[in-house]
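User: Predict structure, ligand adenosine monophosphate.
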Amino acid sequence: MLIPEFDNSFARLPEVFFARQAPVPVANPALVCLNHAVAKQIGFDAKFLTSPDGIALLAGNHVPGDAAPLAMAYAGHQFGGWVPQLGDGRAILLGEVLESGGTRFDVQLKGAGRTPFSRGGDGRAWLGPVMREYLLSEAMHALGVPTTRALAAVTTGETVYRESALPGAVLVRIARSHIRVGTFEYFLGRGMQDELQTLLDYAIARFYPDIADADNKAIAFLDAVSERTAQLIAKWQCIGFIHGVMNTDNMNVSGETIDYGPCAFMDEYSAGKVFSSIDVKGRYAYRNQPGIAQWNMAVLAQCLLSQINEDQELAVAAAQKSIDAFPARYESYYQVGMAKKLGVDLNENPPRAQPISDLSNELFELMERGNADFPLTFRHLAELAAAQIRIDQVKTQDNLNQQQQSALNDFLSQFHSNANLQNELIEWTVHWMSSLPEDTAKRQHAVTGMLASNPTIIPRNHQIEQAIAAGCDENYAPFLELLDAVKNPYSDDPRFADYRLPPEADQRVTQTFCGT
Ligand code: AMP
Ligand code: MG
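Assistant: Predicted complex:
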């Protein structure tokens, strides 16, 4: 079999859920990159996909007979403001395929031409955002963060006009779901309660079969989506990922990262960091992400009120209870993630007097004051733990072997600091070391956990931009090399050494753009 069978459950929903729309063919498709692992996972023959017929499929020039291409309808709150109709304006859901384990995946072409939801847009994407999403989503996957994944990137041989003329491209991506909080809002906004019920039943059957028999399915669904969302955002916070546009139309209900727009990984740490050029008020700043996720869950709750209880007062009370539980849900995942990053045993006996987040917050505060690089600070902390330094050695910075000396220097030198900050940093380091397990086996386990949760390589913004610039000249080597590096985030392989480095002053990227 060259391509998997399509089985299109979303296309079997009532017609108001979507607009049937085939991709608009492109002039001259060419393959930039094929994700062999994803192709294999969902049953595509990789060799076929690199052939002209395969590339035609990826570009939307050929639609398989059993696919059911459509543009999904959704609404959403953008930067807090209600927009009653958005929908797939430049993406086409080709259909769904089943992985060998039985999991159902959407196959979507992004940049596939105009749809009834395009409004003034051209329905196209240019190569920059396509490469950016490919790199970022593969990095996220390698870092263990639930995400949509790229199957392929192709150029179209057509020009797309933004501020300038740019090469057109299509990203083919797979996802557990493209059902967003905004999909529910679309029907609430139109007062379509029957369709809301249909959507709820569909989402439960597809993503949360465990709650199909719950007494109150709507509350069970709200709790389940909140749980996965809390888990997802905790992972973002632990790696310094800033989504950039956490509008309700960009938050799906299966707990995957979706819609990589002006997103970025932080290099120099700052709690209030914003990259997106359009986020002028900092609504989606790094530190706001957990709170915004809760806000988005509250919007989902509103959509479900009639399903929760016919008595609206009771419905609101039940929904409120679920929403109020979000910070605690988030915090528990965040504590687990941070404990692993810091090598601290959450189940130590007797229990810690101080929550892990105090320890991490103190570090973050020092990082902010010292303009420390997010990934390297944590990575060097892991290497410091691996070098088995004792507390007295940190205090005196004496009697260190060469490996210990360089581990300590590497860590401390992340902080561009004055003498005061250095002293506080040493104090913090001593405090942190006294929090590590004493038992040798447990300590080794903690070090292993630290090395496996503090990446050495993230897709750095300046490198992404260099890869995109070269890609626009049809030189894909920098993109492919960077892709190889970000797929190995914990590697110390010297061939990736350059990808560890933070930007030089003149390479720093402070703003990212939507790419629409
Ligand atoms: P985004 O900011 O990417 O989440 O997109 C928000 C909305 O704008 C969605 O409805 C998109 O489908 C639509 N959109 C973005 N770019 C384009 C485009 N080039 N053509 C048509 N619609 C677009
Ligand atoms: Mg979007």
